[in-house]
Amino acid sequence: MASAPIPTIDGTPKSGTFFWGNCLQVFRGAPHAQEAVDFLIWAMGPQNTEFQKAVIKSGKGPVYTSVYSGLLKDDHELAAYGWLQDMKATIEQSTAASKTYFQAMERDAWNKYRIEYFRTGSTMTEEQLIEKIIAHIRDLEEKVAAEMKNL
Q1: Please, which contacts does 128-131 make with residues 24 or more away whose CB atoms are closer than 8 Å?
Q2: Helix extents (H) in the chain
Q3: How many domains does the structure of the chain reveal?
Q4: CA 52/CA 37 separation, integer angstroms
Q5: 75 plus 123 within the same structural domain
Q6: How confident is the model over 76-121, as pLDDT tens digits?
Q7: Rounded CA gap, 147 and 56, in Å?
Q8: Do residues 61 and 19 lie in contact, with contact meaning Cβ atoms separated by under 8 Å?
Q9: Is pTM, for the whole model, over 0.70?
């Protein structure tokens, strides 16, 4: 099983999808927000080899290049996860998710209807799947627009 880059309109190689989120969020107004961020960066940093090993063993790619070139390459305990080295080139082609609701809404709609579409014996056509996804996204857009008015 592998991730395959897809052709793009602009000809620039891209992964076609974002793989997973390597992010953290601290809400505006949270008490000691800067200290919380500082701690999380320290706790999840490349120097914390036990944390990095846990990330790798969970099947996720490390976010730090130094972990690929050091820990993942040199630690014999992680030899079974060498396939992550091959994934690194594909991950590097990934583009950052935009700061909009659209990708999250598309993912929400896809996740809601894909089970029904792929279920053995399903009679849902691709066109019906697309119609459901589009209707779901439009509904979410209306809800987001209404919420934005309340801000």
Answers
A1: none
A2: 33-43, 49-57, 65-67, 73-74, 83-93, 102-118, 126-149
A3: 2
A4: 18
A5: no
A6: 999 999 988 887 877 676 666 666 667 778 888 888 999 999 999 9
A7: 39
A8: yes
A9: no
